[in-house]
Design brief:
Elements lengths: L5 H13 L2 H15 L16 H6 L1 H19 L4 H4 L1 H10 L5 H18 L5 H18 L5
Helix pairs in contact: 1-8, 2-4, 2-7, 7-8
């Protein structure tokens, strides 16, 4: 079980309470698909992903990016048991969708960049450390079916 300091809990809750899901989610997923083009293979039914402009303008990418962020709400609300919170989603991604667990890490890195850009100077080293710890726990929980 992960131990969270009061600062970490407050920081994660604060970040998510201020986040524009419909902006940040699509930006993070678009960035991931552009920077790591091999991740596109899981989105074959999303249509045109031929270049950065097409990815950024794709409404299915935007919708899924928003869905991902709303899915992170579950972890924010269940920080003391993130593994159990994502057990079913982990099985789906590993057994049905066959998603390479490394892709969750790539997406979390892209999300960190987008959040850092949105928060600017407020994204201090301590804030970044708390945010990345949170994302690392989520990534580990989503990838647990692979181990």
């Amino acid at each position: 079980m992960v131990e969270w300091s009061d600062f970490e809990r407050a920081t994660i809750q604060d970040i998510f309470s201020k986040m524009e899901y419909e902006v940040v989610g699509p930006a993070a997923l678009s960035r991931c698909l552009v920077v790591y083009p091999w991740t596109q293979r899981y989105f074959g039914n999303f249509g045109n992903l031929y270049n950065a402009a097409a990815i950024i303008a794709n409404p299915l990418v935007a919708k899924h990016g928003t869905t991902i962020l709303h899915g992170l709400d579950r972890a924010v609300k269940n920080m003391d048991d993130i593994k159990a919170t994502y057990a079913e989603l982990s099985v789906l991604h590993s057994e049905k969708l066959h998603v390479d667990p490394d892709n969750f890490k790539l997406l979390s890195d892209c999300l960190t960049i987008v959040v850092a850009a949105k928060l600017g100077k407020a994204f201090t080293g301590d804030v970044q450390a708390a945010f990345q710890k949170f994302l690392a726990v989520v990534v580990s929980s989503l990838g647990m079916q692979y181990h």
